[in-house]
Amino acid sequence: MSIEPVASPSRGAARDFALGAYHMLPMLVGMVPFGLLLGALAADKGYSPLAMALMSATVFAGSSQFIAIGLWQEPLPVLAIILATALVNLRHVPMSAALAPSLGRFGHRLPFAALFLLADEIWAVAMRAAQGGSIGPAYYAGLAIPFYFNWIFWTVLGTVAGGVIARPERYGFDFAFTAVFIVLIRGFWRGRRSLPPVLASIAGALLAHQFLPGVWYILVGTAAGMLAAAVAWRPPHAH
Amino acid sequence: MRIDPIMIATFLGMLAVTYGARIGGYLLVRRRPIDGRIKGVLEAVPVTVLAAIIAPMAFATGPAESLAALATLLLAWRLPIAVAVVGGVGAVVLLRWLLG
After folding, report:
1. What ipTM was assigned to the predicted interfaces of this complex?
2. pLDDT at A4
3. Closest approach of B79 to chain A, Cα-based (Å)
4. Pair (B6, B29) in one structural domain
5. Among A93, A101, A113, A159, which has the highest number of CB atoms less than 10 A from its own CB?
């Protein structure tokens, strides 16, 4: 399915909403295994379906929810979870900056509601549809609202299913987070320029893991990776 | 698990930093564009954080985990996410059994 640029004059709010929802269909389906897996992993950490629904409805950021569930233990490392969430979601700063010029028809207040729902997938489709022009609020709502409830639904269903099926550690469940994060790395990969930060991050994390307690290795690795990204940065080639 | 105040506080903290980033770029760009080296570093952050998180399991646990991480990476490059995750977990179970 190709996403054509959304014609500037609106064709009515209902039609715009339906078009947005239609453009998101592949994403809605693509989120099913991710949602189920997150819910099942959360159930393994003792989450109830209601707790899962609360998390998905408030945080609404898949990658950081996986990180939070991965770090979930007693006593709860609240600051480490929030810090890791902040770091992994820093990418939304350049993303919302890139989308901002396309929100001209949203007025002054609506963007603050709309941007609460700026998940990666919604951003990608919105950018594609805008193609440098603007998109309307109804179209954006069609992208974002079904995706929001879709995410809550499948994560909660995963928790319900995960609570029923016994999942001992020996089935490799402890590795599921690592596998998910490797898949996410692939999704965030930006070609060769991703290599220096990733290598520096791994080196920094391994060193810190050796000598520092707890989850400090995440912060040390991230700092090393960001430093490498800053040093290795080159201006894009002129066309 | 009971829904307790600590859990709620954690969710709200995660919400605050995520929402901050999602409106942050929108607010910033009205003052000055985010580009050049700063944009490059911000875009590199997700892979950087995720690489740091997986590093101990992928490189400092054992040969079974390292090989399974490699298998997941190879699967993730070509196949749908669900296949890569299931394949990676399957690989670790098999490799732990084989390598004892």
Report:
1. 0.87
2. 60
3. 10
4. yes
5. A159
Q: What pLDDT digit, counting tens, does each position of B45-96 carry?
A: 889 989 998 999 999 999 999 999 999 999 999 888 778 988 999 999 999 9
Position A147 confidence tier, pLDDT thresholds 50, 70, 90: very high
For chain A, what is the radius of gyration of the CA atoms? 20
What is the least distance, in Å, from the CA of A181 to any CA of chain B?
6
The one-letter amino acid code at B81 reads I
Tell me the residue range of the domain where B80 lies.
45-100
Count the domains in chain B. Answer: 2
Q: What is the pLDDT of residues A124-144, one digit of tens each?
A: 889 888 887 899 999 999 999
Q: A81: which 2 tokens?
A: 């979870």
Place of tokens 């639904």: A153
Q: Are residues B95 and B50 in the same domain?
A: yes
Predicted TM-score (pTM) of this structure: 0.81
Looking from the CA of B13 toward its CB, the CA atoms found within 13 Å total 18
> Do residues B60 and B100 share a domain?
yes
Q: Chain B within 8 Å of A125 (Cβ-Cβ)?
A: no
Q: Which tens digits make up the pLDDT trace of A36-83?
A: 989 999 998 999 999 999 999 999 999 999 999 999 999 999 999 999
Question: What's the pLDDT at A143?
Answer: 96
Cα B59 from chain centre: 16
All residues of chain A having their beta carbon less than 8 Å from the beta carbon of residue B11 are 54-55, 58-59
Choose among B80, B41, B74: nearest CA to A194: B41
- Is A154 in the B-facing interface, judged by CB distances under 8 Å? no
Query: B8 and B56: one domain?
Result: no
Backbone angles phi, psi at A196, to 5 degrees: -55, -50
Most B-contacting residue of A63, A78, A79, A90 (CB-CB within 10 A), to test interface: A90
Measured between CA atoms, how close is B31 to chain A, in angstroms?
11
